[in-house]
Amino acid sequence: MLHKRYSLDELDESSGVDLLVLGPQETCLGPHKGSGRPCLGEQIFALAVPKLWNDFYSQQPGAPWGFKRCCFFPAAKTGISLPTKQEKMKGLLSCCGLVSMLLLSISAQAETSALPADCTQIRTQSPQSPSGLYDLQPVGVNNRLKVFCEMRSAEGWIVIQKRTGGLLPFNRRWAEYRFGFGSLAYDHWLGLEKVYLLTKDETKKWTLRVDLWDTEGNTAYAEYRNFRLGDEQTSYKLQVGKYRGTAGDAIRGISPDMDENGFGFSTLDRDNDGCSPCLFYDILVEECIMLQGGGWWYSKCGSASLNGDWYSSGDHTSWSSGLRWTTWKTPKTSSFKATRMMIRPE
Predict the structure, then answer these.
(1) Please, which residues bridge with residue 284 across strands?
(2) Per-block average pLDDT, block size 10, for the chain (346 residues)?
(3) Of 82, 101, 285, 319, which has the fewest CB atoms closer than 10 Å, so is most exposed?
């Protein structure tokens, strides 16, 4: 193997190296021709023509780009006539163009593969990373996903829903809830499809956290382990595991027939709420969405609904209106001032 570093000016008769061959050769030419020995391979650009590529990847320890069929061979031992300097320069520049394209392609692939899979990975790798917008790429997903990461002392959370006021309406159709809406840095819905892509890897478990703020300045939270969404064919069916927190387990509801766990998502134009119809006291309900608004995993209208109409303090209109988490506070007394839903890997 060649161990001398060559500059472009040294590539002449005295160097013993005259051509860089980029082609389908299975073994080296020159002194190893026919020997079955491999070509120069991985270290070709670290060991040769450094001047030409000094400004490109000068910090690379080698060239692990799989050039296992590239060879330098000494003219003196092959009997091949030496090319002129002009021919040599033309050939090297041609190689440079080819290699540049390959390196840019590989660099792009490396950048893609280097993207973090979740916000906790960002927090672990860079403990000083602030809350903000980041690109993620979960395992098995081809496209990058832009999310807002809420950074905590030991982990990072992906925000999937945030509401702080009534400027952004949440009465939306299926397509909008599927792909998401709003501004990621402010009030928004990340999108059912994105949450499914984030959580579809069954070897990775997730925790869902719900934060609630009422109009009097009180706060509460609910966390669910083993959170996951099904794909669109299941209507993004909700799955949650064990609960802990201070807000109560509203997803499973105040009664067994209101358990939202295992239900698909409902919107203005897609009904998966299990009512056919539902009877609440003296009220007959065909679709929960018409009563509570927004979009949610309604189960006979359920005990939780954070995507309904937002109301200021004392302005909610009925027992079912507003942002609801009835195991903490009922809509009869108030609608929440703000809500946030986040997920992180366990």
Answers:
(1) 279
(2) 42 41 36 41 35 34 35 38 52 51 50 80 95 95 96 95 95 97 98 97 96 93 98 97 97 86 93 72 66 84 87 61 83 78 97
(3) 101
3-state secondary structure of 280: strand
- In this structure, the chain runs to a length of 346
At residue 334, the 3 state secondary structure works out as: coil
Contact 20, 72 (CB under 8 A): yes
Domain that holds residue 215: 119-345
Q: What tokens does 19 get?
A: 């051509």
The per-residue pLDDT for 188 is 98
Q: ∠ CA(126), CA(186), CA(240), 5° rounding?
A: 75
Separation of alpha carbons 95 and 103, rounded Å: 12
Helix (H, G, I), strand (E, B) or coil at 242: coil
Per-residue model confidence (pLDDT) at position 220:
97
Residues 159 and 302 in one domain: yes
Q: How far is CA 75 from CA 11, 79, 92, 161, 312, in A?
A: 11, 6, 16, 68, 85
Which residues fall within 8 angstroms of residue 318, CB to CB, at 6 or more apart?
331
Q: What six digits make up the tokens of 86?
A: 């002009």
Q: Are residues 207 and 239 in the same domain?
A: yes
- Number of domains observed in the structure of the chain: 2
**Going along 143-260, which residue ranges are E strands?**
145-151, 156-163, 181-182, 188-189, 206-213, 219-229, 238-239, 243-245
Q: Which two tokens stand for residue 298?
A: 């309604």
Conformation bin of residue 314: beta by default, left when phi > 0, alpha when psi is -120 to 50: left
CB 56 within 8 Å of CB 103: yes
Percent of residues in the chain assigned helix, strand, coil, to nearest 5: 25, 25, 55
> Is 216 contained in some domain?
yes
The CA distance from 244 to 264, in Å, is 23
The answer to whether residue 218 sits within a structural domain is yes
**Any idea what DSSP says for residue 126?**
-
